[in-house]
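Hello Y.,

Per our agreement to keep a running log of every chain we model this quarter, I'm adding this entry. I've kept the format consistent with earlier entries: sequence first, then predicted structure.
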Amino acid sequence: MAFSLFDATIPNFLQGIGAVRGLVGKAEAFCAETGTAPEEIIGARLIDDMLPFAYQVKSVAVHSQGAIEGVRKGQFSPDMSEPPASFAAMIERLDTAQAALEAVGRDEVEQFIGRDMAFVIGERRMEFTAETFLMTFSTPNFFFHATTAYAILRGKGVAIGKRDFIGQIRLKVPA
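Predicted structure for the entry above:
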């Protein structure tokens, strides 16, 4: 079977976005059930020098939807906007990313292969091909931020487990 950039990216991004959306829902329910102020979770960090839960959720969208948009333009730069300030805003950001990714066609993604792609931050510029950018930069960042969001919630006592992190798996469809 030939390598499919679409299969290696879009379905995994969608699965991860769905899982993180579920995590946000569980965080919101946790706050309601325990009387925890939402800001305590939204601003929670694993450790002081790491960015908060809201940033981790934002970055899941940035390194999926934003990565595809970057490849289309041939350049990706970090999203410096403020992270969502509420659970509802996090869900909206994830839903927007999901809808954008669901609209991406297989043929378009396959045509990315071999294109020049740059990551630009300030004066620094790193050159990639589209596929190496997606597979060695954005996908690892996507999963790093999803994992960090999960770990923050676990650390705060939200009752979540591996199934919550994995999300909806894709099973073989009978012919």
